[in-house]
Amino acid sequence: MLEITDQAFRRFVKMTDLENSCETIVNIFHQYSVRTDDFDTLSFNEFNRLVKEQFPNWLGRVNDPEFITNTFRSVDKNKDKQVDFGEFVNLLIPLIKATHDHLHERHHNH
Ligand SMILES: [Ca+2]
Question: Which residue range or ranges hold the EF-hand domain (predicted)?
Answer without folding.
Answer: 63-98
